[in-house]
Amino acid sequence: MSSNQPSSTDAPPSPWRLDTQANNDTSGDADDARRKKADLASQLVAQAKKKQARAKKAALAAQLVDEAKKKHAAEAKKKHAAAPKKAAPKKAASKKAAPKKAAPKKAAPKKSLADRTRRNVTMSAKDALAAALAAEAVKETKEASPKRSKAKRKPAPAPVAAAPVVADPTAIITKALPKATLQGDLLPVHNLALFPAPWKANRSRALHTNDIQSIVTANVLIEAVGRVHLVAAKVSHEGHDWAVWVDTASGTLIAAATPADIYLTGL
Questions:
Q1: Concatenated DSSP letters of 92-153
Q2: Where are the beta strands (DSSP E) in the chain?
Q3: Per residue of the chain (267 residues), what is the pLDDT tens digit?
């Protein structure tokens, strides 16, 4: 073999090898794009499932509130129907005659000492003088005695009970959660008859799922309704929306739950 011939290592790459390498690079990019699309699709499916679960919870809460309202209205109607009607008083057949007032008796004129002495002829002059002196003494005693006041003493007014101090709900929330931001208006709990119904349903569901936080929150609010003055509010805390309840009489925050829109439905 001549030394002037080119060696196999110096030969240029074949076109087939260049095409294979380009195809490998293109297929790798396509695989990366497919994986990214698959990951994005998985994220979208997970978000859709979360939205669907929240929508179901909101619909269930609204349904529980409607059922509680219907039940309350039915009980009120039943009580109204069962209440006995008062019979109208019968009119008297004849009017009773008003009793006639008896005419006041005329006081007999007082007799003088001379008249009394004439009737008692046996009274001596000494006895008559003693009787006259005694009568004068009695008269002077009556005139000298102070007259009793007819006006009755007025009873002392009863002490007025001090009104309970009601704290500002916004101040209570700010003190308990310094990083929280109030969203919207305050929501006082007025409908005490319907308020416990959805929370009893939430407690039953939490018992099945072993959700301790929801069980404790439901128990606190069910026991508090009717005893304390509850005010609810929606706050934002570290990127999450919370429903909070405060007792304005004691000035404390007693319960919180998330998401706020579900637990504040109906207020």
A1: PSSPPPPPPPPPPPPPPPPPPHHHHHHH-TT--HHHHHHHHHHHHHHHHHHHHSPPPP-SPP
A2: 181-188, 230-237, 240-247, 252-257
A3: 444 555 545 555 555 565 566 566 677 788 888 888 888 888 888 888 888 888 888 888 888 888 888 888 888 888 777 766 665 555 544 455 555 666 666 656 665 554 554 554 445 555 655 666 667 666 666 665 555 544 456 565 554 444 455 689 999 999 999 999 999 899 998 888 888 999 999 999 999 999 999 999 999 999 988 888 899 999 999 889 999 999 998 899 999 999 988 888 877
| Rg of the chain over all Cα atoms, to the nearest angstrom | 50
Single-letter code of the amino acid located at 35: R
Closest by CA to 266, choosing from 199, 173, 182, is 199
Q: Which two tokens stand for residue 132?
A: 């006259």
Buried b (16+ CB within 10 A) or exposed e, 15-47: eeeeeeeeeeeeeeeeeeeeeeeeeeeeeeeee
The structure's pTM equals: 0.41
Phi, psi of 246, rounded to the nearest 5 degrees? -125, 150
Q: Angle at CA 145, nearest 5°, toward 140 and 146?
A: 145
Burial 231-267 (b: 16+ CB within 10 A, else e): bbbbbebeeeebbbbbbbeebebbbbbeebebbbbbb
Instruction: With CA atoms as reference, report the closest residue to 196 among 222, 230, 167.
Output: 222
User: What are the boundaries of each domain within the chain?
Assistant: 169-263
Please identify which residue in the block is written with the tokens 């000035």. 251
